[in-house]
Amino acid sequence: MPTPSSTNTPVHYELFHDLQRQNAHLRRNNWLHWIVQIAFVALFVLIMLRPLSAVRVNPDGSPEMLSTVPSVNYPGPEEAEYVSRQISTHLLELTSGSVQRDLAKGFALMTAQFQSVYQKKVTDDPTLASLEKGNVRSVLDFDATKTTIRAEKDGKGLPTKYFVELVGRLRVYRADVLTGPLAVRYLALRTTLLLVPRSKNTLNGLLVDWFDKEVIEAPKGAPTVDANPLSPAPGPRLGGSDPTP
Description:
By secondary structure, the protein is an alpha+beta fold. The chain is 34% helix and 27% strand. The strands form two sheets. Strands 3, 4, 5, 6 and 7 form a five-stranded antiparallel β-sheet that branches. Strands 1-2 form a two-stranded antiparallel ribbon. A hairpin with a 5-residue loop joins β1 and β2. α3 runs antiparallel to α4. 16% of the residues are buried.
């Protein structure tokens, strides 16, 4: 006959197999989540550090793949033409009473070496002193069809210099009276541009290393003198007829 202690003691059964399997599944799931998250973070960092891909659109609309380039891209021929026009305008479009201020804008676009050379040239030029006191102003416009741009490239095929030649018409007016121009000159303007790192002072990534001008003959079929001193553009085209009927 069983004793009371043996008959009244409860019997317990504990099953651990399902709990162990669930814990193992949770651990695997936790590791999988960590791997996915680390992969996403690594992918995001690689995307942020990857150089930019750039495509230049040429004037005819065709794309030119520049592959992966630094975030500061080298300037193209369009910017070279723009800076050449800027320097030409600052150095040749002058007004009596503000010649030094006008020239200072041009000096800001030059390399330090050429700036000192051109400064000496300006100091020795008596024409500018006469212009400062002559009560005149000049207007410069360009013939876009005669612009030529040539690039000098390094071993990697990247440009290091641009050589730009522009053809322009310089007209001189009295500054205080609305009359026709006192003089008209046609000029060949040649500019050498060095590529430099872009900065707040060189947004275009270009500095002028040489600039000169040459008086040329008036193009064949050049328009007659414009009687309106306030219409430097559009006006008649250089070397062509008046576009208006």
